[in-house]
Amino acid sequence: MALDKITQVTGRGVFVPGADIDTDRIIPARFMKCVTFDGLGEFAFYDVRFDPTTGEKTQHPLNDERFAKATVLLAGVNFGCGSSREHAPQSLRKYGFTAVIAESFAEIFFGNSTTLGMPCVTLSHDAIAELRAAVEADPATEITIDLEAKKVRSGVGHEFDLAIPESARDALVSGRWDPIQELIDHTPQIEATAEKLHYV
């Protein structure tokens, strides 16, 4: 089964403030008891979206109805740091995000996101600040991540050069971003090679 080629992602944006947002803040450990990743979306950023004492919603951007339709997450430096839990990008994907734009990413988070077909691209601090201002002025503003042209554009005229490791960009645009699916698609070749190996 061929994977979708991910050449562009377009959606509304929301900025989540803070540097060094780690995977425990993205998905608290107590919600990782699931057998599958289904249902993790509702727990994304749970401990900062809800008051730990009252359970009431906080002023977190994801609780703001203006950003209810946002699918592009804007963030700062070292997004996704901390433990290597795959649940973090899974929770964002299940929440409804299709891409993340940040100043920088933790390497394992970046890799786990890529294998979900969720592009993570970097922009400068100033570029992200401009996108943040645009979406906060008008939450309907659309942001496009063009992986082929290596650009990020907004519906109000922004255009920025994005950065992404070429190996990840190539995997996304060529539809080879899921290594497990790659193995499944090449089962006949794997079996043929195994038959030639005396120790298998």
TrEMBL record:
GO terms for cellular component: 3-isopropylmalate dehydratase complex. InterPro entries: 3-IsopropMal_deHydase_ssu (IPR004431), Aconitase/3IPM_dehydase_swvl (IPR015928), AconitaseA/IPMdHydase_ssu_swvl (IPR000573), IPMI_Swivel (IPR033940), LeuD (IPR050075). Keywords: Amino-acid biosynthesis, Branched-chain amino acid biosynthesis, Leucine biosynthesis, Lyase. Gene3D superfamilies: Aconitase, domain 4. Its EC number is 4.2.1.33. Residues 6-122 form the Aconitase A/isopropylmalate dehydratase small subunit swivel domain. One of its GO terms (biological process) is L-leucine biosynthetic process. PANTHER family: 3-ISOPROPYLMALATE DEHYDRATASE SMALL SUBUNIT, 3-ISOPROPYLMALATE DEHYDRATASE SMALL SUBUNIT 2-RELATED-RELATED. Belongs to the LeuD family. LeuD type 1 subfamily. This is 3-isopropylmalate dehydratase. The lineage of its organism: Bacteria, Pseudomonadati, Verrucomicrobiota, Verrucomicrobiia, Verrucomicrobiales.
